[in-house]
Amino acid sequence: MKVLSRLNKPWLHFVVLGLVFYQFQLAMFPEPKPVVGPLSEKRIASLTEQWARSTGRAPSPVQLDRFVAAELDQDMLVQRALDLDYHLHDSIVYQRLILNMKFLQLAEGKSDAELFKEALEMQLHLDDEVVKRRLIQMVEQRLLANNPPSAPDSAELEAAFIDRKEALKRPSLYSIEHVFFPSERAEEMFAAIARIKIEKLEVSAARKLGTPFLQGHRFIEQTPDQLARNFGQGFARELESELNVSQTQNKANAISPRWLGPIQSAYGFHYVWLTSYTPAREVKLHEVKQRLMQDLAYLANKEALRCAVVALRTEFDWRGNEHTASGEEDLCI
Amino acid sequence: MKTVQIERKLLPLMLAALLLTACSRESEEALSLPADAHSNAQIIAQTAAADVRLQEQARSGNRSAQIFDTETKLLQREHEKTGASINKPVERKAYFGDLHVHTTYSFDGYAFGTLATPYDAYRFAKGESISNPAGFLMQLSRPLDFYAVTDHAMFLGVLKAAADTSTEFSKKPFSEPYHDLNAPENMGTGTFDVVKRLMTFGSFLPEAVMQIRSGELDREEVLDVVRTAWRDSIDAADQHYDPGHFTTFAAYEYTSSTADMGNLHRNVVFKDTEKLPREPFSRFHSVNPEDLWQWMDDLREKGVESLAIPHNSNGSNGQMFKLVDWAGDPLDDDYAKQRVRNEPIVEITQIKGTSETHPILSSRDEWASFEIMPYRVATNALSQPQGSYVREALLSGLALEQQGMTNPYQFGFIGSSDTHSAASQNVESNFVSKLGLLSGSGERRGSVPQAGIAGEISYVADKVVNGIRGQANLRLKIDGNVYTAGAAPTFGASGVAAAWAEENTRESLYSAFRRKEVFATSGPRMQIRLFAGYGFDESMLTQSDGIERAYATGVTMGGNLRPNEKAEGEQPSHPSFLVMASADTESAPLQRLQMIKGWVDADGTHEEVIDVACAGGANPTANRCPDNGAKVDVSNCAINEETGAGHLSALWRDPAFDQDQRAFYYARVIENPTCRWSTWDANREGVAPRPDLPTTIQERAWSSPIQYLAQ
User: Fold this and answer.
1) Cβ pair B91:A218 closer than 8 A
2) At residue A135, does pLDDT exceed 90?
3) Which of A18, A195, B355, B397 could disulfide-link to B407, CB 3.0 to 4.6 Å?
């Protein structure tokens, strides 16, 4: 009874009813969200021009939509920074605005604090690109701090490894020695090769039948590209094809040391002793783990920021055109 | 006050006069090829004006201020990769690389819009594509074997830190003007954007020095930024070092100059990264290179091995190889020994021109005008040839020896690019020069005219502004077309370093640098070998063990050949030179192989260029190969490949050899002519090649010299 009598106070009814009406009003008539966009025709034209200047062609409609969305997101981040008063408490913004006032020759006889206050009153902070970039940077840091990316797990690592297996493939490796015959000694070459075969000469003895080759006589574990650098592209291709033919004739699985050629290069002819050959192979995960983890961490960071920006759009009346950023939200959990 | 008033009244008249002058066809400049710039009256007058201005600038003391104390504190580094041998050492092979690369950490690289980091630089050298500040991608057609990022030690990383508004350093008032310098909206290539960038570039150093001197900028905070960037550069080198496949070096550039802007730049390359200095020694520790050598010596005592590679002696105004020391005293043995110990090799060619020799110094060398950049570095003032070129320095060294002194100039040769966009630039057909945003188009590089009314306006504006300021014009008019003036058009797509080494590791390559078994090329990956010895015979050219025998019985490039020791009464034998070269399979064939001899006798120093092998097997007459019929169609840059050789070799004996005469010998191999980069640019734009630039060049490679030490 005592409790009820205590509740039976007019002032309390007034407070409770007030709160109820206030909540009701909030629910029925919410504050309008801050508006972002649409982008003016002038800004769209400027984006198109920037792209054309750096690439030499006009952006496609899809590319243009993407630029517009990115531009609107930047506007949104600036707006959020202003809502949070970031521009009032950052030393870079502070210095920049003072410098702008000095540039406008409005600084005479005024302290920095006065200049800063006047710059804000003149809304210089809304037009300065450096200030905007700084504000965006601070909001992005805050978004990332609130939505940190998760460290890549083993499943993601495995998936990235499978996706990029082809690109990560190790090329074939040739270890060769060769006997070199410049073009002017081409005629002697066949007799020399016949001698090497008949007498089954060791490579060191066989080399004596040839001529010095400036780039050297022994090449260890060279990729086709590396061989091409010393002998030319044609040599590397022909070596591979000679090896394929020789392997077909041998009908053996393992590739044993053997003579190949003569093979023509940019400099003359080469009778090649293949010491060893390692076919192109796929890499093992442990060989590329560190590189993949770095790439995944970078992507996760980028994705976390993108999703945080997409989530932030719900707090704004974000007015892109009909295609802008469509479907982007679905990709964020 | 009265003077000011008169000037104000006269100003419109002056402007009108200048405008009329600027618009007049008669005002077109007197043209000269880069190699003839020293006889161009207009450039001579421009040099005199520049000298006055440089003297005034020098008075401020900012450029030569010593604002940091020298220290040799070391970085302690965890080390995973070593220079251990990968394969059993085999024959030495030629490895190609670049030991002069700037990235976003160089204050000028950053001012040119470069965002590529040292990591990006190494990725580029390994064959990946990276972005030029002007927006397009750059990629090598084939990877390099070694690479060293050599950002400027002076204010290393400081402009980048000032511009990046997420750093603590950017919050300083000093940093404010540079905020977001390279943000996308500031990466414009219009005239106004470029002028703004040039002003930033020009003001950064004096402003930084002034503020440190006045105490506005804390030197320790600046050094913190420098040390952090230096550590990151080393980390990048270590991360990308792949022994056996790709070698990196920790390195940086010491960027000193004299008051008249005589270039004294050096790249300092460290043998490994186990022990390194905590901070690089820069011109703001001392502008005197002798102090740099002392610092290197002090570090060597602590187990830190390094060498310094001077570059752009061509732009030194006679300062790089002068015959007095920093204080102006005659060179002595201590100076010479210290220099030889620290500077075993020089960069003979790079984008800012080739420093082998100049037609004024070598009038009997028909190939001496190759890629001459006649100006002092970063000016439009002529650089005095005497004391600025490598061949003359080798001769000066002989003369000093004759006077009983140690020879300070006994170096080997390398080339390197000096790119400021992290990417080597040495292919004529896709050269984008070194200045990032400022050289991203043919117009900016000076190879093609500036199109339309914009060109006219900028020409007139430039003429008026620079006329009033008494400075050289940034543009010039040729046949009614407006071109970029100054040094940029004289830059060359040149500079590759090559080393004969057992394997592609730091240890093996550094050892090649030290013994000077290195050579330079102007871009193509030609290979060149030079040996000298007494037991050499013709069979070394045809028998496959010729090179092994040359190694076993002779000396190779970079070495010293002593007189043959004979028993008393026996005739002394003359040495022979085994010289061989092969063409780059992706470039033009070879035209001729030459020996260059320098010697000293009672009459002074002398030099001679001798063709020793000719394409097509022709025999040289009067030391010259006959014309091999090589041609270039400059309208499409096509060449007749069948006229050249894939390889050239000779066993040469010096007919004038005198065993008592001190001499040096080096080899030079020359390709058939091909289009210069400026001609490629002009063809792409569909305009005529600029008339005051060579339309074709003959790419080349230079071996390091062999020094013959007389009795």
Assistant:
1) yes
2) yes
3) B397
pLDDT digits (tens, 9 = 90+) for A7-46: 888 888 899 999 998 888 888 877 888 888 888 888 898 8
Put simply, whether B557 touches A (Cβ < 8 Å) is no
**Do A163 and A308 sit in the same domain of this protein?**
yes
Q: Do A211 and B543 touch (CB under 8 A)?
A: yes
pLDDT tens digits, residue range A71-91?
999 999 999 999 999 999 988
Residue of chain A whose alpha carbon sits nearest to that of B189: A53
ipTM of this predicted structure: 0.74
Same domain for A191 and A265? yes
Here the CATH number for the domain that contains residue A265 is 3.10.50.40
Q: CA–CA distance from A84 to each of A104, A143, B444 (Å)?
A: 28, 13, 45
Distance from CA of B73 to the nearest CA of A (A): 32
Q: Are residues A116 and A227 in the same domain?
A: no
Residue B330 clears pLDDT 90, i.e. is over it = yes
Q: Are residues A135 and A250 in the same domain?
A: no
Q: Hey, are the CB atoms on B582 and A129 less than 8 Å from each other?
A: no
Residues A116, A248 within the same domain: no
Is A112 inside any structural domain? yes
B176:A184 CB<8 A: no
DSSP B488: G
Q: How far apart are CA B663 and CA A213, in angstroms?
A: 29
DSSP state of B27: G
- A94-103, B200-209, B462-471, B524-533, range with the lowest pLDDT: B462-471
Looking at A278, A307, A325, which one is the last position of a domain? A278
In a domain, A7, yes or no: no
Compute the distance between CA of residue B43 and CA of residue B22 in angstroms, rounded to an integer: 17
Is the per-residue pLDDT at B567 higher than 70?
no
On whether any CB of chain B is under 8 Å from the CB of A211, the answer is: yes
Chain A residues whose CB is inside 8 A of the B165 CB are 92, 130, 133-134, 137
Q: Tell me how many domains chain A contains.
A: 3
d(CA B347, CA B251): 15
DSSP 8-class letter at B254 = E
Mean pLDDT of chain B: 91
Mean pLDDT of the region B193-198: 78
Q: Is residue A21 part of a domain?
A: no
The parent domain of residue A248 ranges over 170-278
Per the domain annotation, does A20 fall within a domain?
Answer: no
Is A92 in Cβ contact with B580 (below 8 Å)?
A: no
- Give Cβ neighbours of residue A56 (< 8 Å, ≥ 6 apart): none
Q: Which of A155, A211, A157 is nearest to A181 (CA)?
A: A211
pLDDT of the residue at B411: 97
pLDDT number for residue A6: 80
Say how far apart CA B711 and CA B702 lie, in whole Å.
27
Q: Name which of B94, B189, B547 is nearest A212 (Cβ-Cβ).
A: B547
* Domain match, A106 and A230 both: no
Q: Where are the domains of chain B?
A: 2-30+435-487, 74-430, 526-708
- Cβ contacts from A onto B, under 8 A: 107
pLDDT for the residue numbered B86: 52
